[in-house]
Amino acid sequence: MRIFVALLILFFSSIAFAQDKQDAAQIRKLFDEALERGESYEMLRYLTKNIGGRLSGSPQAAAAVEWSRQQMKAYGFDTVYLQPVMVPHWVRGKKEIGRVVNSKKLGTVSMNVVALGNSVGTGAKGVVGEVVEVQDFQELAKLGRAGVAGKIVFFNRPMDPKLMDTFRAYSGASNQRGAGPSEAAKYGAIGVVVRSLSSFNDDVPHTGGTRYALNVPKIPAVAISTNGANQLSALLEDDKALNFYFETHAQMLDDVLSYNVVGEIKGTEHPEEIIVVGGHLDSWDLSEGAHDDGAGCVQSIEVLRLIQAIGYKPKRTIRAVMFMNEENGLMGGRKYAEIAEELNENHIAALESDRGGFLPIGFGITGTKAQQDKLLSWQPLFTPYGIHQLKRGGGGADISPLRTQDVPTIGYLPDSQRYFKYHHTGIDNFEVVNQRELELGAAAMASMIYLIDKYGL
């Protein structure tokens, strides 16, 4: 009996070893194809240089929809189609001005500011008033209406530099941008200035969406660069009655029709089972949107191209989705999940790339413990490529609505230490993306999709 058990263990061990060798060989092919003949970088060049920033509702967003549709058709994917979705149409306006007015130390000082996405504008007269600096909503509440009414609230809480996970640092500071204007308006503020959400001290302001609460006045809001925030705070220490002026011409127009763009390779054995890989096609209007999220879009298209290029025939349907309107509404992600539910589609996994085109270091998964354990068991196959952080917990904004259908969601994790230098800025352009890092990321994503396709979750 013992001999039989030993032989059985040996038999299954040999099968597992053979599978590991086969998987390692396929993953090697994916990386070789990406590094020797990768096309993600040239796709990104076209998207950024020929189309540029792609804010929802803009002509550039419409051009990006058609470009990605044509690109996936040119690659010969089995199916390419558009999903209609209504999206918000916010426009920035051409003029944005910020300055300290007649400070005791320096007189009038110009400051780099940009309007927050979805913010109302000030119009030609601008907004001017005394500045009151706060770190959080609790401090704002303590000041109350007596300390805030008629003033400009300056939210100056920085991202925590001690945190190695820069996305955690971002989350710890982002509510002042997302909800700060409405919180300040509750106490009678006439405008809001928000410290840019950045890991670096520089003169580049970062935009990003704000969300106005119901039954609260909509007041104009701008982001100020981190260097500007530091200077403004220092001036306030010596001059409590310091005045600030800013002028913006942003406005929200009527919603417009746009599209998610979907391309897929049909599964050979279980075509009804769908694996999604995607990024968001829209970007802020200040730059070319290279890292956020042009990189994620071209990597997702490249995943399908790589799978085709190495001759792998997936068992399940692999679908690349270019989501529209992640930045200021998430309408594309919501519409995708809504349609999936209406059609009773069976998604077995969704992977999103929305952390820039930097060096791949891992993946994070949100799902059941068994699903997480399975993904973590693949760690040895990624280790040769320096990908060492397969962990529990992860996903992405656009695939998050699928969680209501119990779909495991996976976030692609590149090295994030430089991401918040470029995020939502005017310098997120093609030139700041490293070709090799972008291609390594696409290969890593394709490898994860290959394993999910072969073994499921």
Would you count the extended β strands for me? 16
Mean pLDDT: 96
Q: What is the percent of helical residues?
A: 25-40%
Shape: elongated
Quaternary structure: single chain
How many helices? The count is: 14
Taking pLDDT < 50 over at least 5 consecutive residues as the criterion, the unreliable ranges are 10-14
Radius of gyration: 24 Å
What's the quick description here?
With 457 residues, the protein is an alpha/beta fold.
Q: Could you describe the 3D structure shown?
A:
With 457 residues, this protein is of the alpha/beta class. Helices cover 39% and strands 24% of the residues. The chain is built from 14 helices and 16 strands. An eight-stranded mixed beta sheet has the order 1-10-12-11-13-16-14-15, with helices on both faces. Strands 3-2-9-5-6-7-8-4 form an eight-stranded mixed beta sheet. Helix 1 (2-37) packs antiparallel against helix 14 (435-455) and helix 2 runs antiparallel to helix 9 (290-309). Strand 11, helix 9 and strand 12 form a beta-alpha-beta unit.
What secondary-structure arrangement, pairings included, does this model have?
Layout: H1 2-37, H2 40-51, H3 59-74, E1 79-91, E2 97-103, E3 107-110, E4 113-115, E5 127-134, H4 137-148, E6 152-155, H5 166-173, H6 175-178, H7 180-185, E7 191-195, E8 221-224, H8 226-238, E9 243-247, E10 251-265, E11 270-280, H9 290-309, E12 316-323, H10 331-342, E13 346-352, E14 360-366, H11 369-376, H12 379-382, E15 389-392, E16 409-414, H13 419-422, H14 435-455
Parallel strand pairs: 5-6, 6-7, 7-8, 11-12, 11-13, 13-16, 14-15
Antiparallel strand pairs: 1-10, 2-3, 2-9, 4-8, 5-9, 10-12, 14-16
